[in-house]
Design goal:
Elements lengths: L7 E6 L4 H13 L6 E5 L2 H14 L4 H5 L2 E4 L5 H8 L2 E6 L4 H4 L1 H10 L2 E4 L4 H17 L3 E3 L7 H18 L5 E10 L4 H13 L1 H13 L3 H8 L15 E3 L4 E4 L4 H15 L6 E8 L2 H18 L2 H9 L12 H5 L2 E9 L4 E8 L3 H19 L8 E3 L1 H4 L1 H10 L3 E5 L9 H9 L1
Parallel strand pairs: 1-2, 1-4, 2-3, 4-5, 5-6, 6-13, 7-10
Antiparallel strand pairs: 7-11, 8-9, 9-10, 11-12, 12-14
Helix pairs in contact: 1-16, 4-6, 6-7, 8-12, 16-18
Length: 433
């Protein structure tokens, strides 16, 4: 079916979820005039309730919100799912865990010729979908774009940006990019935690290797390099999980999203040919060595508690972590931030990048990333877009990067370290003044 025959530009699937409701709000306030948006989910009354609540909150956007149709269906009902998806140019899904609820939706999107985006961080599931459906997606000219949230757009598009800059300025490919989260403040939703629990189960072997490296202060990057002959083995790029970084002048420690971001960036690097043996590593800054060790041990201990149902129930009961369907308040979201420093190495030089956001990375910046990804697929698609099942940089590349910059998201690059005037720490301090 051609796009001109479809009733909607964007279908938000999972519209009653914590993230889905905020995505609808974003689209209502930021979409071009006459953008046709539909709300999809299982419960008619809850979907109507979302519209009513948003209309009351944003009276000026009432006409736009009222124009959003409701499409009721279930991921388990393939026939109804096909009927719904066939009406949309793009499906933006917020229904996770995606390995449990997203596979059939992607199969239907590929079969019906609808583009798709989501915010999963479930890398093994995305690769499984790629192996199963990529060939058919390419044949049908369909773009299935997962990981369009905080995991993994900052790292993914950041390295994409650095690669093009290195080629333009130095006429050389990248060998390695080092990422460092130098500042972050954000909350987490119950749905994200539920997804994380499943992800931990899937990646328990990889996580266990990371835990041993963290607690033993051994080099995780060197172990991975020895197992993968496609990754540069230069000693400059082999650092311990806890180490001192001369560039940012801070101790570095284990960053939980590094496992997802590292795999995603390396995948994009292979597809887009960033450079022979290209590699990526990511860590989080700490105030000092003691803080670095405390962060790593605390994070590992927290992940271990979430792996067992009994301890999860205790954490839920004590309200230490949110239940599925719960998430950070709007005030907390507005006061969040993050800043990612990037340092890219070529054969003869170094290029620098910075990606930052001035709101909660998981529920402020992520909504912007997902909303603009959906709009990009709906309105910007051209021959530069690569069909198939790929990360955002591969599928949308420069078009999405341009959109995010136009929305005020910082994606800066240069030959020297990026000035701190726009970094997340200063953004946070300005908010407090």
């Amino acid at each position: 079916m051609s796009d001109s025959c479809r009733s909607y530009d964007i279908l938000v699937w999972g519209a009653t979820s914590f993230t889905g409701t905020r995505l609808i709000e974003y689209l209502a306030l930021n979409s071009p005039p006459d953008t046709r948006v539909a709300l999809g989910g299982r419960n008619q009354s809850k979907l109507e309730g979302v519209k009513q609540a948003l209309s009351a909150k944003h009276p000026d956007a009432t006409l736009c919100i009222d124009a959003m149709d409701i499409l009721v269906g279930d991921s388990a009902d393939a026939a109804r799912l096909r009927e719904i998806v066939a009406k949309a140019k793009v499906v933006a899904s917020t229904v996770g865990p995606y390995a449990a609820y997203g596979s059939e939706l992607i199969r239907v999107c590929v079969a019906e010729g609808a583009d798709y985006c989501d915010i999963t961080g479930e890398y093994p599931w995305v690769k499984q979908m790629h192996r199963e459906l990529n060939e058919e997606a390419v044949q049908n000219n369909v773009h299935i774009v997962s990981m369009c949230g905080f995991d993994c757009i900052p790292a993914d598009l950041g390295c994409f940006m650095l690669t093009h800059y290195a080629r333009d300025e130095l006429n050389e490919p990248l060998q390695h990019v080092k990422g460092s989260i130098i500042g972050i403040k954000g909350g987490v939703s119950g749905g994200t935690l539920a997804t994380l629990v499943i992800q931990i189960g899937i990646e328990r072997k990889r996580l266990w290797h990371k835990i041993k490296s963290t607690l033993g202060l051994k080099s995780a990057s060197s172990k991975m390099a020895s197992r993968d002959t496609n990754i540069v083995s230069d000693k400059r790029f082999q650092r311990g999980v806890i180490h001192y970084d001369d560039s940012v002048q801070r101790w570095q420690t284990f960053w939980v999203m590094s496992m997802i971001n590292t795999q995603t960036v390396r995948w994009a690097g292979q597809v887009l040919d960033y450079g022979p043996g290209f590699s990526y590593a990511e860590s989080m800054s700490a105030h000092n060595l003691v803080h670095a060790i405390a962060l790593a041990v605390g994070l590992v201990f927290g992940l271990m508690l979430m792996m067992f149902s009994l301890t999860r129930k205790i954490l839920y009961a004590l309200k230490i972590v949110p239940r599925p369907g719960e998430g950070p308040s709007e005030e907390f979201t507005r006061n969040g931030f993050f800043s990612l420093n990037l340092e890219g190495f070529t054969q003869s030089g170094i290029v620098y990048g910075k990606v930052s956001g001035a709101s909660d990375p998981g529920y402020g910046e992520t909504i912007t990333y997902l909303g603009e990804s959906a709009l990009c697929l709906a309105f910007d698609r051209d021959r530069t877009f690569q069909p198939g099942i790929y990360p955002p940089s591969v599928a949308m590349g420069k078009a999405l990067l341009r959109r995010l910059r136009n929305k005020g998201c910082q994606f800066d690059v240069g030959r020297a370290p990026i000035p701190t005037a726009r970094n997340a720490n200063e953004q946070d301090s300005k908010k407090k003044q």
